[in-house]
Amino acid sequence: MDDEFLDTLLDTATEPRLKVISQDEARALMVLLGQLEENGQPENIRYAASEMRFRIGSRLALPL
């Protein structure tokens, strides 16, 4: 998955008119992604999980 597609997907998910996942689901997803970062996964998997956690976390911090 390339960065431009990921940006588009995440930006669309945070628009008020369209919610793909709830805040609770986003937090749960961040926990799961955290497990991928720490469980001896290959470098590319850890990098992708870290990037997704950062992007989701930054969007959770935005006011609605």
Could you outline the blueprint of secondary structure elements for this entry?
Blueprint: H1 3-13, H2 23-38, H3 43-60
Helix pairs in contact: 2-3
Q: Could you walk me through the main structural features you see in this protein, from its secondary elements to its overall organization?
A:
The protein is mainly α. The protein contains 3 helices and no strands. Helix 2 packs antiparallel against helix 3. It starts with a helix and ends with a helix. 2% of the residues are buried. The mean pLDDT is 76.
Core attributes:
64 residues, single chain
Structural class by sheet pairing and helices:
mainly alpha
Total number of helices: 3
Radius of gyration: 12 Å
**Could you give the distance between the termini?**
27 Å
Largest sheet: none
Pick out the low-confidence regions.
none
Shape: globular
Strand-residue fraction? Answer: under 5%
Task: Kindly state the percentage of residues in helix.
Answer: over 70%
Give, in order, the helices and strands.
HHH
Which whole number gives the mean pLDDT? 76
